[in-house]
Design brief:
Chain lengths: ~375, ~375
DNA sequence: TTGAAAGCGCTAACAG
DNA sequence: CTGTTAGCGCTTTCAA
């Protein structure tokens, strides 16, 4: 087979080949290609042009192997809590996309792993088999314990989620407690009093949003009613069923704080099918501000999570751990996007995405 | 540092260590761990227990390097057509999730790459640097030419998208032309005549759906009206603007065929904001059947793309190419899910996902 | 400025 | 059944 201008062919041409062709040693080729100042600039240019001519590209696998690094970051989506074994939430795609962008910019590869196994060692396995330099976990799922355990001696780990007291790893996430409180305060401000909470409290982030819900209620002198706590899991179907149950068990409510936009949409549908009008009868606030939130009917009032900076921060923190640092956890600022579903009352907007009223939190801290 | 029960610590323990500890040679350890029948079962057990004791796991990077394979499949999302540089469509997450599952089942790692570059070599680069055994491309974007060029000498490539005449690579995708036709026929069946088409025809899949749109119209003796072709790009914002433009330019229409559910939702919102009621004034059919389609108001009639089997087929085909085979392209059966947005007329359903009427296509062919 | 040689951690002939 | 040996393709001392 002719080796000239080889491309996309499993690259039979190696560094030795280039060396032979250029009449120099492997070492020199290696240096030249790495732009080492040690090599004569003419030799370098010669080598480079020969390499180009023959479509030679450094074999990254071999390079990384020699360097004892992988230049790869594993992004793990734990699904232990997710009965449907399915990432159904657009929020995660946004975040994943942002992580992918940042990682690419930093020259790292992204190894995507879905972990639905029950093995206690699920995380340790990813880490131990040396397929990556570090790990980004999207969500804590119900695995706080396991994660913390692993984090005790594996430091190259960053997690999207809630910052829990005493944890051994760095998290990046929104200010869930404040976010929850802002949502509920807004509903209270619109005169609502019986505010249902929809979410799976087994997840740390949701537990904090729940705490925010309770905070805001107590501020207003309202005792949180356990009957209004609905254990809606992520996933539209489960949330839909939970909402139906709430409606049918006769507990009165005039507002819903849904801990994700997907849950909010499922809830609204469950209500509208039963003749309950949003926002006239019931106000709804969601969480995430996924793209579709602005396009839903009614447009969703929601607590925005900024996936773009979230992903960037996750990567920054992870790269810091790779340098041996111990980055502080990041709590992203929280913002309430006010749209129709809470009864904003104004007439429809022309540009749903931009016209929403925003209420910023004071929190833009990095703790 | 004590090496006992080492875990999550960058694994300083190697196969040689285990060999020394067990008093055998590296080769024997290698064989034992691979369950080779060549090794005495007692020796094997001894070795395995020692390995376990010391938390030893085979270094996959070294293993793969030696075997000259990567056991990694790159999943590339080309974004050349996507001005927003953002995967905003939940459909892709579903597909990605399904691919991740299938790949995991087959023991392959998934390397995720977003390609937004303009370099003509974007695909060749992924392929040439030997970071993966094969490539799955999610969507053809506007890169048919480039893809086909690469595919001419790189065979380990499978693409989600449209099957184009004479192409050199294997595709998996839904029957876009039939899907488009089914959607439009259904609208015609409900008495609609002025059926707008929303989509970016630069994408091969969308071009086929457009052909289906025209097919169905002509069958009904209607000449496709160019004024009703709206170049809506993926992404809710762009689609929203396109729809506004259509409404405002005064072209009459009584139905919309949107080439994705996200586009459909944005379109519905644009209409409802302007006092146009769906489905009373205008019927809408979408494409994809993303989870949220059932939860939108009105629930969306849509052409389902089965991401679960789609992902599985993509992986099957790719593994076939890895074995040196040349798998045939796959066209998945198309199914119309009838819900409210086209004016189905029945009262609301209790279980939106399951209660929808289905119209199956005869096409389940594998060509 | 360049080359020779060693070796990353593993597997697979080959030879006992 | 087991050990010895020779690399995979690359980087990096060390010596010239």
């Amino acid at each position: 087979m002719n080796k000239t201008a080889q491309t996309c062919t499993g690259q039979a041409v190696t560094m030795s080949d280039v060396a032979r062709l250029a009449g120099v040693s492997k070492s020199t080729v290696s240096r030249a290609l790495a732009d080492s100042p040690l090599v004569n600039s003419q030799t370098r240019e010669l080598i480079k042009s020969i390499a180009r001519q023959h479509g030679y590209k450094v074999n990254l696998k071999a390079r990384n192997f020699r360097l004892r690094q992988t230049h790869t970051i594993a992004v793990v989506i734990p699904l232990a809590h997710e009965a449907e074994q399915h990432i159904s939430d657009p929020f995660f795609l946004d975040l994943l996309g942002s992580i992918a962008d940042s990682l690419t910019d930093s020259g790292y590869d992204l190894l995507l792993t879905k972990e639905a196994t029950d093995r206690a060692s699920w995380l340790a396995d990813v880490v131990d088999t040396q397929r990556c330099d570090g790990v980004i976990l999207i969500g804590q799922s119900s695995q706080q314990e396991t994660i913390d355990q692993v984090a005790k001696d594996f430091r190259k780990l960053v997690v999207w989620g809630a910052q829990l007291p005493g944890q051994h790893y760095c998290t990046v996430g929104s200010d869930n407690r404040l976010g929850g409180a802002m949502a509920v305060r807004h509903l209270l401000g619109r005169g609502r009093r019986r505010i249902a909470f929809l979410g799976n409290k087994a997840l740390p982030e949701i537990a904090l949003r729940h705490a925010g819900w309770a905070d805001a209620l107590r501020e207003a002198g309202i005792r949180p009613d356990p009957l209004l706590e609905v254990p809606a899991h992520f996933g539209a179907n489960a949330a839909y069923r939970s909402m139906v149950a709430l409606i049918e068990n006769g507990t009165g409510f005039d507002a819903v704080f849904a801990t994700s936009d997907v849950i909010a949409m499922a809830a609204i549908r469950a209500m509208s099918e039963r003749g309950i009008t949003v926002p006239d009868d019931v106000s709804v606030v969601g969480y995430d501000d996924i793209t579709m939130a602005a396009y839903y009917t009614p447009a969703l009032t929601t607590v925005r999570q900024d996936t773009a900076t979230g992903g960037r921060r996750l990567v920054e923190c992870l790269l810091a751990t790779l340098r041996g640092e111990t980055p502080a956890s990041v709590i992203l600022p929280t913002e309430l996007i006010v749209r129709r579903s809470c009864g904003a009352g104004e007439s429809y907007q022309n540009q749903p995405t931009t016209s929403a009223a925003r209420i910023n939190s004071p929190s833009d801290c990095q703790r």
